[in-house]
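Researcher: Here's a chain I'd like modeled. Treat it as a single chain, no partners, no ligands.
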Amino acid sequence: MPPASFRIFVAACLVLALAAGKAAGAEPEGPLPVSIGAALGPFADPGGVRAALRARGIDLTLLSTHEVLGNPKGGLRTGPIYAGKSEAILSVDLDRWAGLSGFTAFANAFRIDDTGGLRDRSFRRLVTVSNIEAASTTRLSELWLERRWASGVALRVGQLAADGEFFASETGKPFLSNDWPTITGANLPSGGPAYPLATPGLRLRYDPMPHLSGLLAVFNGDPGDQGMTNRHGTNFRLTDPPLVMAELQTRWNQDADAPGLAGSLKLGGYRHVGPAAHLRFDAEGLRLGDPASLGSARRLRGTGGLYAVMDQQLYRPEGGGPASGISVYARLAGSPSDRNLIDLWADGGLVVAGLVPGRPDDLFGLSVIYARIGAAARGFDRDRLTFGGGGFVRTAEASLELSYQMQVAPGWTVQPDIQCVFNPGGGIENPSKPGAHLDGGYVFGLRSTALY
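Model: Modeled as a single isolated chain. Structure tokens:
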């Protein structure tokens, strides 16, 4: 089989070749995203290439995110790390390209550079420190084709990432630690189909009204380990037990000129149908922490969970849009405690946008995250201590984040960030200091994000 990097190149070329053909006569619809190109003057679109591509229904976006993070106190070791993610995003309107009404093609790929990752290197955390943290590699992410009908139905097929549409809060996205929640990332095989991993699947969406949506998706349930079996995102695994996700969304006052406060509510659930292991008892009914146990966990049928996501604007300045002013968000989720490391997840926060005098595009906010260790895992820890083992009974992990996102130029933001880590790993032992807990601590960071 050709090298993975070659397969990424071929996959990207297939989409680009599809886009390079017949041009439609229609004009581009809608504005381009806010881009740093606006500050580049005549260098924003050399030769008019980007405008020519968009006239043919082709949008190519480049996103560059770089950060330095460090913990001066706490964890296994202190010191800074660097992480960077360069992303290319290609969207092709096949209606404008070839008159295929309702069809869209999409692909994106990353180049990830990470010198350590504070979550694993320093804190052995369950909760994300940085939402771009991943194994250093070049990786294909999503690659899909979507068909939309006038009835409000849309079907998407290809390699998909669930975190783009499911279990997500728009208000919480500015925070570095806001990510695919740990209750799914820690409980699903290989973390589930979420950054930096995607997996083959299909997603059905129905929008019967502008304020109401229903989503149903089926994914290959195990994308493979990002650092070993699926390092470049080109395995296209199809034979693993599936993951099914469903979500109902309702929104209010989302129009730019709406007089009321904007908000949304999402209710969802997921089910992985593959086998799961009991975290406390073996196949014979003995406790796994008992030396008499053979160590083979009791087999269970699948896992899953339910969740809710709420975004609500509290203050909307005159003339402001749905993301302006003061907003809050919250996510709450639960999973069966007998087979899942995390059985309860809660996060939320407050974001203030556009209210800094003289800086209408800046925002700042405060967020909190709580992840509780499941009852069976806590029971296993107690059993291990009862039978003379070491360690501690894990309970929960929490974090607090304070962040300020300032716009340097349209399309370019710089973001200082402070996080406080409590009880990393839920209260695990420090491997370099037997008999002592691994200490929490502080993380200081600076992120730069540019969109072109």
